[in-house]
Amino acid sequence: MRAATIPWEALAGEPLLPRRHLGAIAIATANADAIAVAELCEVSSGIYSEAYVAPEAEGAIPYLRVNNVRALVPNLTPGDLVHVRFQPEWGERARARVGDVVIARTGTLGRAFVVPACLDGAVLSHHVTRLRLRAPDPERALLIAAYLNTREGKAQVAALASGSTRPEITHADVDRLRIPARLLAASMPEGTASSIDADLVAALAGAAAAFDAIGGLVRPPAGGSERVFTAPYDREALVRALTPRYHRPSQVALEARLRERYACEPLGRFALIRRGAGSRAAEYEDEGLPYARTSAIINHGLELYPEYRGSEATYRAHGQGAGPGDLLLTIEGKIGGVALLGEGERCLVKNHVEIIRLHEGAPAPVELVYALLASHLGQAQLGRRIVVQSTIPGIGSASRRLLVPVAGRGWRTRAAFRAASEAAIAAVRSGQAARDRLRGRLDAIVAVARAALDDDP
User: Fold this and answer.
1) b/e map of 68-97 (b: 16 or more CB within 10 Å)?
2) How confident is the model at residue 64 (pLDDT cuts 50, 70, 90)?
3) Domain assignment of residue 456, yes or no
4) How many domains does the chain contain in total?
5) Do both 170 and 287 map to the same domain?
6) Which residue has the higher pLDDT, 237 or 113?
7) How far apart are CA 104 and CA 124, in angstroms?
């Protein structure tokens, strides 16, 4: 364990909190020749926007909030990423540019990512801070972000945070953060930053193309939002779900057309579906296998670097065996998040998430089921079955009754189904391959940062 002597006068004016003392020690012992963030970067936070706009609205640009700040890769999940119209009075200080390092200054601290090309010009919320290198260098920005996501980097951020109701780190505190010089001197293959950008875009585009392809089998009816509607008394329907959502005409009609045009099978007929398990705080580890929590299903998959992890022993003890080819579906709280575990991915699954494992010889491949669940056809079926369970919404065991099309009923629909299935499967595989490349590149950056930190002078 490292220690350092901190002069009392160095603590003058600081709250007499243990974390402040630990922060001073962390900074003093980070590295003798560490460089303060203030010397490397210009620090700026965003603004508060009173209104959001639809993503397709004219002039809409992304608005980055705390939930969008994740380790190394931003959360770009539709629904989590909101949009605003830029106001001139906000100024350049509120905008993110390619190569900026973005951190959260309130809430969940200790995460950082580098702004990719697809977020160039995005607006920062007032709870988000950017670090703009005085000498722009995309590779160095990645190393700084990688460091801030390490145990040492998180310790500095957490130690400097304060607040009566929630942790917060001020600009003065950000300026005090120190980056080890030996890390900044590390090198990586040229073009790493642009390759990461390309892989991130390809991974998201592949998933989106798959969802659109399978969702094209039945399009939502025009004017599908009902503010007021009536439903006939239907005892069977009421027993299934005592909620108005179940009777929503646009979603009922969508499901009816799916049945009419395509032969469908309930998901539970050809898949083993089981709920994840609860866990104790003592089971969380700094390293190991990631926990698949509701908040960790982002960007159409499992978060690449989730906050919570568990050991191999816990993985075996839970007996879930979640791994490549399994689907994850969030069933409580934020419902409808879907992930397909790729090559080499294993995880522990929390109890607000279901594991879906297709039987051998299932009538639909796993890529098609993944695309169906995440498309508007799957989301509409899930939406109808949401029930508020005392405090939070959930769907219970309704995922087993979700309809999965397996063939067309006529020659036209058979041809349409075949074309949509082939397109969806190809798009999923393309997106998964890009995701694997992205993970490999980010792992390499983390390894470079780790090696630099472990190489004590």
Assistant:
1) bbbbbbbbbbeebbbbbebeeebeeebbbe
2) very high
3) no
4) 2
5) no
6) 113
7) 10
Per-position b or e across 137-156, b if 16+ CB within 10 A of its CB: ebbbbbbbbbbbbbebbbbb
Q: Would you say residue 451 has pLDDT above 50?
A: yes
Q: b/e string for 274-291 if b means 16 or more Cβ within 10 A? A: ebbbebeeebbeeebbbb
Amino acid at 351: N
Please indicate, yes or no, if residue 256 is contained in any of the structural domains. Answer: yes
* 80 phi, psi to nearest 5 deg: -85, -30
Q: What is the pLDDT of residue 9?
A: 60
**Range of the structural domain that residue 294 is part of:** 204-440
| Of residues 302, 283, 429, the one with CA closest to residue 353 | 302
| CATH number, domain containing residue 52 | 3.90.220.20
d(CA 369, CA 351): 21
Q: Is the pLDDT of residue 197 over 80?
A: yes
Task: Report the C-alpha gap between 266 and 327 in whole angstroms.
Answer: 16
The whole-model pTM stands at 0.88
Amino acid at 45: S
pLDDT tens digits for 238-278?
555 556 677 778 888 899 999 999 999 999 999 999 999 88
E strands, 101-257, where?
A: 101-104, 112-114, 123-124, 128-133, 178-179
355 with 302: CB under 8 angstroms?
Answer: no
87 CB-near residues (< 8 Å, 6+ apart)? none
The residues with which 379 forms a beta bridge, in sequence order, are none
